[in-house]
Amino acid sequence: MTQRLLDRLTAPEHDKILTRAERPVVCVQGLGFVGAAMAVAVANARRLDGSPRFDVIGIDLPTAAGKQRIDSLNSGHFPFESGDRALDLAVETAAREGNFFATSDASWYARATTVIVDINCDLKMVDGKLEADVDLLREAVKVFGARIPAGTLVLVETTVPPGACARIVAPALEECFAQRGLPKDAWFLAHSYERVMPGKDYYASIVNFWRVYAGHTPQAADACEKFLREVVNTSDFPLTRLGSTTASETAKVLENSYRATTIAFIDEWGRFAEAVGVDLFEVIDAIRMRPTHSNIRQPGFGVGGYCLTKDPLFGKFSAERLFGRADLEFPFSTSAVETNNRMPLESVAKLRDMLGGLTGTRILLLGVSYRPDVADTRFSPAATFVEEVEKCGATVTCYDPIVREWPETGKTIEKDLPRAALFDAAVFAVPNQSYHGLELQRWLSGGRPAILDANNVLTREQREELRGLGCIVESIGRGTGL
Ligand SMILES: NC(=O)c1ccc[n+]([C@@H]2O[C@H](COP(=O)([O-])OP(=O)(O)OC[C@H]3O[C@@H](n4cnc5c(N)ncnc54)[C@H](O)[C@@H]3O)[C@@H](O)[C@H]2O)c1
Q1: Ranges of the chain with pLDDT below 50
Q2: Ligand 1 within 6 A of CB of 82
Q3: Tell me: the pLDDT tens digits for 179-210?
Q4: Is the CB of 164 under 6 A from ligand 1?
């Protein structure tokens, strides 16, 4: 099926025709959690007569991970445990239709009418200094800048430091086009960030969700708008155009900084609630009744994932490195990331108190992903937790209903829920669906491990049942015995 698109594009007679005379070709650079899903969404965009709007070529690196993603997509499977039937079906449809394939061969960019950039742009603290992978971004742009036809729309979806499109991507494209003897600005550059949310609404979070976008020029903004209207359900989820790519990039990092900061803010109230004997979840439910406060966050095990752990720091990097404004401080965003990074250590401290020390204890960790019911373990707070309790001399067994491998730690993940009787303590770290129906008495099978509900996983009834069965049960965000 994929072969059909390959055959069509490589057929000798096809070489004489510009691809764009047939179906526009969209190249998606980077087939990770975002790019793979976006590529599938574009391949499933339909004309009024039901035929595909685009031919789509997903391009990743020839690394082990890149090859696995490419092979998986080419065999009609999403490369990650998606948890979303709609996404799995969309991959199958694209494979059946034959208008999508994945490759590591960059020469396909020469066929593009649109390139979507979905690569990673990491941000790390190196020797006390923030370092973003803007060199990787520049080099990635040059790979297609050296090949794309004049007039191609370049749509950057990667989360980048504000100013990156104008100050890194555009100059790289200009340089490439000048080297090729083409007018140096014969491309259309736009930014529109992803709000994709792995989990049960993975696919819908791309095609049925609001988008913000902006162009490097008004013409680029128009081209981006036209493209997004063809892929996203913009009738129900209207687009918002901003005045510059820097504004759109700022919207993305501010959106995530806001979320990370409000989560960190609740952390101090969680500890207050524990100290004074209050159930903060009840308090928060009461506050949420007020419409202006309906999205107040709650205490928990920690914050993970690829976005909230780094995006709040992009403002500082951008001000300092792209705009020469080292004087601009981001105290809330910076402190939010630090607080959120430390959060799993509170569960470690609580567990130590519950067990009277951790040396030689056996701990069962329930949930290793950073969100419920997803297989993504990147920057999961569970990694910090495991590292710390093991440092304190405990042995940790990890169970997760969805995650099968944990590449960041190399730890084995139990596929079947281990019997509680084997452990001194069990920590409910992620509110996965499957714990709702847990038959507690059967699971305990006579054991009485200490139970830490670190993420509001258990209901009041479950906590009481566990206590009735002889377990000590404590929570993050609740006073003792609540
Ligand atoms: N994961 C999410 O839920 C999410 C949500 C919204 C936005 N984002 C943002 O989207 C971007 C991508 O995130 P992700 O989770 O998909 O990252 P990822 O690490 O899963 O995927 C990135 C992919 O890009 C590939 N890549 C890197 N350089 C390349 C190059 N030169 N050519 C081709 N491929 C290349 C990598 O091999 C990798 O497969 C990030 O900026 C992220 O912050 C992520």
Answers
A1: 1, 12-21
A2: no
A3: 999 999 999 999 999 999 999 999 999 999 99
A4: no
To the nearest 10°, report the CA torsion of 386, 390, 396, 402: 20
CA angle at 448 for the pair 442 and 450, rounded to the nearest 5°: 120
Classify residue 197 as left (phi > 0), alpha (psi -120 to 50) or beta. beta
Which phi and psi (to 5°) does residue 189 adopt?
-110, 130
Vertex 455 angle, CA 120 and 382, to 5° = 45
Return d(Cα 196, Cα 207) in angstroms, integer.
9
Per-residue pLDDT, 20 = 42
* Residue 137 CB–ligand 1 contact under 6 Å: no
* Cα 219–chain centre separation: 30
CA of 435 to the centre of ligand 1 (A): 31
pLDDT digits (tens, 9 = 90+) for 350-372: 999 999 999 999 999 999 999 99
3-class secondary structure, 29: strand
| 413 bridge partner residues | 398
Burial class (CB in 10 A: 0-12, 13-18, 19+), 264: buried
Strands 211-215 and 188-191: antiparallel
Angle at 233 between CA 228 and CA 237, to 5 degrees: 100
Task: Look at residue 345 in the predicted model and tell me its pLDDT.
Answer: 98
* Residue 304, ligand 1, Cβ within 6 A: no
Q: What share of the chain is helix, strand, coil (3-state, %, to 5)?
A: 45, 15, 40
DSSP three-state, residue 457? coil
Rounded to two decimals, the pTM is: 0.94
Token readout for 72 is 């998986």
Question: How far is the first Cα of the chain from the last one, in angstroms, to the nearest whole number?
Answer: 57
Alpha carbon of 39 to ligand 1 centroid (Å): 12
470 to 302, 448, 465, 466: CA distances (angstroms): 28, 6, 9, 7
**Atom 27 of ligand 1, residue of closest alpha carbon:** 119
Q: How far is the CA of 353 from the centre of ligand 1 (A)?
A: 40
Q: What dihedral do alpha carbons 299, 301, 305, 310 form, nearest 10°?
A: 70
> Is residue 194 within 6 Å of ligand 1 at its C-beta?
yes
CA of 121 to the centre of ligand 1 (A): 7
Indicate whether residue 61 lines ligand 1 (CB < 6 A).
yes
Pocket perturbation via mutation, ligand 1, pick of 38, 136, 194 by most ligand atoms within 8 A of CB: 194
Q: How many C-beta neighbours within 10 Å does residue 208 have? A: 13
Q: For ligand 1, say whether the CB of 380 is within 6 Å of any of its atoms.
A: no
Backbone phi, then psi, for 33, in 5-degree steps? Answer: -55, -35
DSSP string for 340-379: HHHHHHHHHHHHHHHHT--TT-EEEEE--SSSTT----TT
